[in-house]
């Protein structure tokens, strides 16, 4: 079951000045103040992962992000339980371009 990618795209592309659009294989970090699209009370600030798919059909591109092992190791048990109760993958989610930035590798 896919996660939601609804939302509005802020002015600009959400990327750091001089960076290119993200592609599959790029590492990202979630920007401050961003919450899970399916659980608005669950903050994702600073979570890291790798882009595994890109959807550019909408006005604001969306990225399917698979969480890093370090994030999965620290995953709150309630987050995993909530994802599983709604038949959602807990190890990945779709995020809008404005929600993420390239991670320093």
Summed up, the domain count is 1
Instruction: Tell me the quaternary state.
Output: single chain
Q: How would you sum up the global shape?
A: globular
Number of helical regions:
2
Mean pLDDT: 86
Would you give an account of this structure?
This protein has 105 residues and is an alpha+beta fold. It has one domain (27-102). It contains two helices and five strands, in the order βββααββ. It has helices spanning 69-73, 77-85; strands at 27-30, 48-55, 62-67, 92-96, 100-102. A five-stranded antiparallel β-sheet has the order 4-3-2-1-5. The longest helix is centred in the C-terminal third of the chain and has 9 residues, at 77-85.
Q: Which structural traits does this protein have?
A:
five-stranded antiparallel β-sheet, 13% helix, disordered N terminus, 25% strand, alpha+beta, globular, 5 strands, 105 residues
Give the arrangement of secondary structure elements.
Layout: E1 27-30, E2 48-55, E3 62-67, H1 69-73, H2 77-85, E4 92-96, E5 100-102
Antiparallel strand pairs: 1-2, 1-5, 2-3, 3-4
Briefly summarize what is shown:
The protein has helices at residues 69-73, 77-85; strands spanning 27-30, 48-55, 62-67, 92-96, 100-102. It has 105 residues and is α+β, with helices and mostly antiparallel strands.
């Amino acid at each position: 079951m896919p996660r939601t990618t609804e939302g509005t795209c802020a002015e600009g592309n959400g990327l750091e000045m001089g960076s290119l659009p993200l592609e599959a294989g790029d590492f990202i970090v979630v920007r401050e103040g961003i919450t899970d699209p399916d659980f608005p009370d669950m903050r994702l600030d600073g979570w890291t992962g790798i882009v595994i798919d890109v959807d550019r059909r909408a006005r604001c591109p969306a990225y399917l992000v698979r969480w890093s092992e370090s994030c999965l190791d620290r995953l709150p048990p309630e987050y995993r339980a909530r994802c599983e109760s709604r038949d959602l993958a807990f190890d990945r989610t779709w995020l809008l371009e404005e929600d993420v930035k390239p991670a320093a590798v």
